[in-house]
Amino acid sequence: MTVFMLNRGASVSVNRSRLTLSVTLPSQSDTINVVDDSGAAIDFVAPAPGFVIIPEPPDSFTVSVQSGAQEFPRGSSIFANVKVDATDYTDEDEVRLSEGIDPSGLRSVNILQFNADGGSLRVELPAVSTVAQDLSSSAEAVRVEARRQLGNVDGTSRPVVIALDASASAHTLDAKNVQETLEHIIGYASQVTSENNISGALVSDRYVPVASGELAELPQRMVKELESAPLRSSSVITSEALIATLPQDALVIYVSDSLPIDFARLGTCGVEVKLVVLMSREAWDVETRGVEIPVPATHVDTHALANMPEASRSAALSQFVQALSQRS
Q1: Which of 50, 58, 256, 323 sits at a 20 to 30 Å CA gap from 185?
Q2: Exposed, middle or buried, 100 (CB in 10 Å: 0-12/13-18/19+)?
Q3: Do 123 and 114 meet the contact criterion of CB atoms below 8 Å apart?
Q4: Average pLDDT over residues 147-157
């Protein structure tokens, strides 16, 4: 399977076969619309809210989200991904938005545009409309204030590196529990940086950088690294190999189920590191009993999260993003 990360105003070419769209709706009352160039509705199957299946994609069509109220409330965010079935000659494709769409104040917003491209389909995240540009300016003002609260006095953007533990110490991590958390970390990171200056890294006894456009592949790459990790290996987050390659004023978000072996140096390595712990709270308490953690850790109880109803899961992940926003 090929995974694409799509930026605003950019486009990618995918197979032309059955499409499955998954859209995170701000409200359960919001609806997804699919129309062709003439504005006529296109037949699709909607097995559940936020899911749309288009069995036979036409030459050109647009996917939009309509607010169930008068307008989308301030702070709304829409994420989406597209899965395209494999054909006899091509593998399955997947397209993910690299940033959330902010529809605040709008009644309807176009999220994806599809156009025939030979035997393929070109997928585009439309450019921001004039109205949305004004709203984007407001959203940027909110991000500037968020950065001030995070410690950047002048509200400037800062680069973010999402580092996943790829050593043998990460014994309970899997692609599924990392993927959901990763999407929310990227959402948080988009507040901290304006230029989508978000990259990734796999950290063990070595450091493997991952470009921004390959973030969607991070969980699977982590799993492959774990399969070949030496027994009893641990990650070293303050190594010179990592620190020397980081952009100036970088914020590192380290994701693991345990502390890095050099956790005692985190506060003195010259880089701000936020710990995200993917583990049941009870298990974490047992493993860290008697250990003084120098930086606050944000917990994601993946065991409890998997058994929560959707509303509770959304609330838990919202609390997670708020916890990340706290100063280290």
Answers
A1: 50
A2: middle
A3: yes
A4: 61
